[in-house]
Write a structure and sequence with these properties.
The chain has eleven helices and ten strands.
């Protein structure tokens, strides 16, 4: 293992930055390659078959090119559908993104939990299994929102996000029977923590949990005792379609000072 071998983060868009941020806090000198499948974005409306075929093939090419020490699928949709296939195909550690239903159940007082994700994520049997194992005494309400994904992407290129737009996007979750009793919401899409301020205003009194900090701790554990550079290095953001120029400032805030379009 060479010190310059990077961590490779993968998402359909910029959502995985919410996983990169806590990882940077724990491993500030880690070389980073952040890959966004902008040509395939968004994943939420895509079929399971499309995602299961696209993600392993693309990650295989990225691993061959950048030779990472570890891959992070920083996308709930890709993880819930393609994680097992990716792990079988790649000969290196692969960390997925799991909806944080267990910590949400531990925190909830009303025993009514909301799960906000993409349509593809919230319908997965994997989410059923997590709810049965860790929240069996809770009512778990779900909603898949493509609108919130779009709002997060817009925020990262500097566009204002109206609270009314956030409220409209989450209304189908709150309008379900029992929705008025939700006290904890699982942000089961890595895009959604990027809207933490707006969601807090839109849902006062509700707490939010996401998998980012836990994933960062897992990455730090798997790479313990490995060598790192002596100082931080500029990160690389890779896109399968050219990104908007307005995204550069946000990428730089996450330490991604260089960009490359495949």
């Amino acid at each position: 293992m060479t010190p310059n071998a990077p961590l490779l983060f993968f998402d359909s868009g910029v959502g995985g930055l919410s996983v990169l941020a806590p990882t940077r806090a724990l491993l500030p000198n880690a070389p980073i390659v952040y890959a966004a499948d902008s040509a395939g974005f968004p994943y939420g409306p895509r079929s399971e078959a499309e995602i299961a075929a696209r993600v392993p093939a693309l990650l295989g090419r990225l691993v061959e090119r950048f030779r990472p020490r570890l891959v992070v699928i920083a996308c709930n949709t890709a993880s819930t559908i393609a994680l097992d296939v990716v792990r079988a195909a790649l000969d290196l550690p692969v960390v997925g993104t799991v909806p944080a239903i267990k910590p949400a159940a531990e925190r909830s007082q009303t025993r009514v939990i909301g799960v906000l994700g993409t349509a593809a994520t919230v319908r997965q049997p994997y989410v059923d299994d997590l709810a049965a194992r860790f929240a069996s005494d809770c009512t778990v309400l779900r909603h898949g929102s493509a609108e919130l994904v779009a709002l997060a992407e817009a925020k990262l290129i500097g566009e204002p996000v109206a609270i009314d737009a956030v409220l409209t996007a989450i209304r189908p979750l709150l309008d379900q029977p029992g929705g008025d009793a939700i006290d904890v919401v699982v942000l089961a899409c890595t895009h959604f923590p990027l809207l933490a301020d707006e969601l807090t205003i839109a849902m006062p009194g509700v707490s939010f949990v996401d998998g980012g900090p836990g994933i960062a701790r897992r990455i730090a554990h798997l790479t313990r005792d490995q060598p790192w550079p002596d100082a931080p290095t500029p990160g690389l953001a890779v896109f399968t379609d050219p990104p908007p120029a307005a995204l550069a400032a946000s990428l730089a805030r996450y330490g991604l000072d260089r960009t490359l379009s495949l």
